[in-house]
Amino acid sequence: MPTPQPFLPHGGSYKNLIAYQKAECVYDVTFYFAHHYLEKGDRTIDQMVQAARSGKQNIAEGAAAGNTSKETEIKLTNVAKASLQELLVDYEDFLRVRGLKQWQPDDARLAQTKRACAAHNDSEYYRKAMPERSAETIANIAITLIHQTDWLLNKLIEKLEIQFVENGGVKEQMTKARKEYRGY
């Protein structure tokens, strides 16, 4: 009898995903922001922190589930996207109702923020920078990070879809491994 071949993929750690790293930055920025710029007792604090947490945690959970279910991985990655979209709206609402500016594409501050956020995936960078920034600046940094994370999650979902089409799901891989083992 031939030696059975493993059929479950052995993917890398979710911590190596840039989308996860960015989502962690979003979480840390949001935690600081919510606890420093929203009034104590405001339900939005918990909602924003939970949306940021959900964005990060669902990437991790999806990656872990991906070894046995690409469908679950895709769904949880999309849940992460949805949670971050909810958080994005909270930041936009914060700026709008307080008469603060959401930086527009022609604003030099936005261009600078995009470059800085693209260059830094380490949440410590943001944790150190937050105490020196205004509520408006932090909200715009968070918005930028959310957009960048969303773009990365779109690319990740596309990659997962391609992997599924090319390799099938775990049931197909199990059947294939069993047939190869039996020699037919």
Automatic annotation (TrEMBL):
Q: Which organism is it from?
A: Leyella stercorea DSM 18206
InterPro entries, per this entry?
Answer: 23S_rRNA-intervening_sequence, 23S_rRNA_IVS_sf, 4helix_suffix_dom
Protein name listed in UniProt: S23 ribosomal protein
Q: Which domain of life is it from?
A: Bacteria
